Structure formats: structure tokens, C-alpha cells
Prior knowledge:
The structure holds 2 protein chains of 2 kinds. By secondary structure, chain A is mainly α. Chain A is built from 9 helices and no strands.
Amino acid sequence: MRIFLAIYLFVVIAAVSILGFRGSTSKKPPLEVFPDMDRQAKYKPQAENEFFADGRNDRPIPAGTVARGNYFNQVEVFSNDFEDEYLGDTVFHDGKNADGSFAQTLPLNVTYELIEQGREKYAIFCTACHGAAGDGNGVTKPYGVLAASYHDDRLRGEPDGYIYDVIMNGKGLMYPLNDRISPEEGWAIVLYVRALQLSQNANAEDLSAAQRKVLGL
Amino acid sequence: MANVFPKWVNTVPIKVIVAIILIKTAVVLGVTYYATPKYTRVGYEPTQPVAFSHALHSGQLEIDCRYCHTFVDRAAHSNVPTTQVCMTCHSMVRKNDPILAPIRDSYESGEPIPWVRIHKTPDYVYFNHSVHVNRGISCMECHGSVHEMDVVQHSKSLSMGFCLECHRNPEEYIRPPEEVYNLDWERPDTEEFNKEVVGFVHDWKVNPPQSCSGCHR
């Protein structure tokens, strides 16, 4: 019995010291004892694939195609009274008129929802460099990112299409965002940038007497 | 008549019973403790090709999760960012740093960076990120406090029991939609808030499936 207890204790201590405790960190991938159908041979997003020469599942977009779910609502497209408002609309896609000049105004109806969408997307994609107020003082400034302030006469005077073009295609040191932003979101950000410009360059006289009283002006 | 069995045989049955009980206890406790994702998965912390720190980017600089994981709110898969996203800042920040050499090489050659995937569900689990984040389930409910991790590690078990825990009591995990990406948010422990959350569950028609086909196909 003593020999049994000694072996028993030894095995338990050995097992615990080899296996460790829950939550201990490891660089080795998790052990799958019974993998069953955990890992199936199927296409998964951003996964590896030996079939293609470059080894990846995600294929480059072929020229002349429109990615699914970009801006068309499928239900609308297949309804009888569907009229194409956007395809072929160069202003909506590029911010430019047919003759190549920048569009002066937004091609979308300005709504409160659109500006709220713009605020959300601005906070995600723009604040890090341009700052919450659009003055070019983002958190990345101390690290050496040079970002423009929206509050100068040149940018206040540029047409909406120009700002849209910079957001989508980049300019100078700024990289394009068109890989992550849809045209509608791009226009929403333009709208919000306009609101920021107004907020930093407004006259007290523009407000009504009641509004000025609330603000103590 | 001499004894057929020596005297020590008297204690053999009790010793065998004790031995069996001890072995069974050890096996049951061992399997309960170790044969679970809480042990096998939690703490997985692989070395990535580039030592990207979420603690710096997400925690200290407070860059929104969606700056990089852009399509988490409209796709089933939460995307790993392209190299272009890294280069948006790192064309200016640390542009000659050797630790970012793989990023620059990838941007020039077009070859993807082989990031090591940490959080994996079995392939028969159809988890949809967008439906969760759009209904008030924060990133950190499944991924933990990523914004405090220099090296990302698997911090929740992601076992089926883990999923069901929340699917049975969504009001204990749901948060206001504007706080989903705010990983520093703390759940107020007030009567008022608990009522509000129950309101979310009702108003958004949150009805997490508990049947097999809800997640398994």
C-alpha cells in the first residue's frame, strides 16, 4: 500500500507540474484531442489556400466588377420600379462632375442621420490624426504624423467634392481610405467636416438672441 | 487445518477499494480541470510576425477598434487589417524601424503578413460578429481586455457553455450600443441601469438562439 501511495502521489504531482494550471500562458497552439469536424476543408475569410499560387483564399477583385454589398440594396435592385441613381453617377463615386471638376455640393440629401453617421465614421477614421476638432492635433501628432487642420481659408473654400476626393483617394502623406469607406460614408464624413469647420469659425451674430443668451454671449 | 491464505490477505479488499477510489478521484478531477477549453485554450499567446501592441494602439492612443477591424459591424468575420492600414500611419511613424520591416516589405510586394490566428471556433460554429456588436455585445465579452494586452492572448474559453451562458441571460452582458467599442466602460451596478438593459433586450428583440441550429449548421 505504501508503494502504491508513493507512486500515486508521484504521478499526481508529476501531472500537475507538467500540465500546470488554468490560465497559464503558452505559445503553443491549443491541443485538440478529439478534433472531430473542428477543422474542415472549406473557404474561410482571410485564410490560407494551397490551391491558388499566392496561397490565399481572398481573391483580388476582377476588373469591371462590383463587389457584393457595396451600396446596392439587393431587395431594391430586384424590385420592378428600381431606378439606378448611383451607378454611373460620377459625383457620388468620385466627387467629380462629368467634366472632371469637383462637385460643389453633396449628391445626397442632408439628414440628421447622415451627419450622425459622419460623426461616427469621423471618430473612427479621422480623429487619430486630425483630432476631434479637426485642427490637426490628433494623438498621433507627437509620434510624427503630419495632419492638416481644416480650419483655414483654403479648405473652407474648397468644394465638397474635393474633400471627398481627399478622403477616398488620399493626398500627399495621407493614405486613401476607399478600402474601408463606402461612398455614402465618405459623403457623411464630408458633411461632418463641414460642421466642424462651421463650429470653429462661427460668429456670435449668426445665432439668435435666445441662443446667445443660453451660451452667455 | 492450516490457513490457506496468509493473514495479510484480510486487508486486500479494503486496499483495492481505497486504491480504486483514489485513482478514480484523480482521473475525474484531472479531466474536469484539464479537459476543457478553460485550460486548453485560455492563455494561448503566440508570437506574431510583427510585435503589434494593442495596449499601445487601442489602449494608450485610443484608436477605435474599427479603424483596423473595419468590417466587424457588417460582416460575420472580423477582418484583420491589410498592410495599407498599418502604412496609413507607419509611412510617417517609425518609418525606418527594423521591427516594422515585415510591414514595409508586405506593402511593397503585396504578400500578406502571416498573422497567427488566436481565437478559433470549430468550423461547424457559425459565429457572426456583426449581429453581436450591433446589439450591444462588446468586443471584450469574448476577447477580454485586448486594449491592455501587449501580446494578445486567448482570455475567455469560448466553449459552448461560455456562449450559452450569455445566450440564456443576455441582459447580464448587453451594454448601450455606443459603448460597445469602449473597452474601458464599466457596467453601472444600479437598479436604473439594469432596467434600461432589460429594455434594450426587449426593444431590440434580442432573442439569442439556444437551439442547435442557431449556431451549428
